Amino acid sequence: MTKKRWITKAAAALAVCFLSLGTAAPAWAEEEPTEETQEQKIEIQASADITSCKIGNDKNTVTINAVSQGDMTGTDGRFYLFEMKPYEDEIGSRRDFLASGEGNSFTWTTSLDHGSADDKLYSKFVVAVYDGEDFVQVSEPYYITNPEMIAPNQAAFPYSATKKGLNIELSMLEDAFDLGVKHVGTNIAFHQILGSGIDYTYDGKTYHFSKDVIAQYDKIISALSGKGMTVTAIVLNGWNDATPDLIYPGTVKSSNAFYYLFNVATKEGYDQTRAIMAFLAERYNGSNPDHGKISNWILGNEINNQQWNYTGEWDLTSYVKAYQKAFRVFYTAIKSTSANDRVYFSLDYNWNNPQEKDGKLKYGGKEIVDSFNSIANDWGQIDWGLAYHPYPCPMTEPEFWNDSQTGLISTDFNSPVINFANLNVLTDYFNQAALKSPTGQVRNIILTEQGFTGVDAARGDIQNIQAAAYAYSYYLVDSNPDIDAYILSRQVDAPSERQQNLGFGLWTCDMNQPDRIVAAQRRKIWEVFRDIDKKARTLEATEFAKEIIGIDKWSDVVPNFRWRSLENR
């Protein structure tokens, strides 16, 4: 990264004298030169790259490695390391560098100070040069990439026997248990956490959280994880007039927005956001069975569409940078508490759909992935994952195997839509070396919201087609080694969706109670869901679906079909 700055040779020489003594140049040495004293100006060409930033084995220090390049003319010949908070974008007039050095490579060590007002756990670090007037940043910011080093909870990620998941109703937990649900999702309303009743001190500052709201999450999460389910939390930032600092600065409330971009761009927003997330990560770390355990964390919903993550019209790069700054705060809070928890961002199925992206409020999922990964390469690569939503296209028709007729499904990496019809395109894309995790593994991918309607405006009850679609889709996921979980939406129809002729549930709902979700009757999909992951019953449970889909064997349409050996008996 090269920064251009015009200075005078005389000012630079004066600055060198003071800096060599470890003292910042006084004001008189930094005054603008007059026309009489102005000499030929020099363009700074120096640049630096931070190559790693990690907490040491002692858990109390941070080691930063950097390399430099370019002509040092116009500087004092030294490079300087600065710490910046996530909400800081420039060094400005600061003189409080952490370390300095000369040469082409550097290894600097500083204290972590975790748990104090000087905590550097969430900080970013930059390299600068001194031009005789100011310190000028010449590197990209770089964050600590191994916050898991200090996590009190080092337990392994919980093992699940199958990938089968469901968004359930807490009142129907026994039904979910009978169904053999292994993965479950739950929403956390980030904007409702602040309140009263619970005092929480973080880095020496006390915050106040709503006892009533947290009690509800305790009840839900402990009930789910207590049944041996792997819990995925979707953290959503709604609008709350009482918590303006949680909303990204300059954002105007929109009637078209359901949720809003997290704010770490101001000190107040950063402090509150960091404290809330640290509290949630600690409370749901599994140490207290009355609180429960969250293992997967999703930050926001379908971030390629600002309807779900609103901040206003932005170009892609600016939008993703703002989101990633917040993501890193969440990631650090989570991983520094439970080392093996997983952290994701979420996308809908519009992968590269020109009909559904405008570069201002809607972006292609592929663009988000590529931009997020590129920025992470510059700022310090971390173990982020993807939560994907491969609904059929359109959502009103469950027969995804016919979706190629829309013209939106292809088998190349630029497919407008990626859903169950071409799901391997997504995992093939993530198998590229450039997208793999820092340890060289394919990133964690989970499917956290998708379903198939059992009703149709024209055809009426189509529950057999719904069940066939689920069987086919589950086999595709179950036989794909790069997808970790499949959470179906939902256990019971939602009355609001039924009014739009959509019925995604394993159960129909009682439409005489439109303000509540009350189960009425089981659909065919209930039995398929129950038996789909059981070796002794899976093929029998899905035999009916072959005629609906138009196939003779599952292995003809499911690559590496898991139960192929059973088919041939």
UniProtKB/TrEMBL annotation:
Pfam families: DUF5722
Keyword vocabulary terms for this entry: Signal
Domain of life per record: Bacteria
Domain DUF5722: residue ranges: 158-557
The UniProt record lists the keyword Signal: yes
Signal peptide range: 1-29
Record-given protein name: Tat pathway signal protein
Species whose genome carries this gene: Candidatus Lachnoclostridium stercoravium
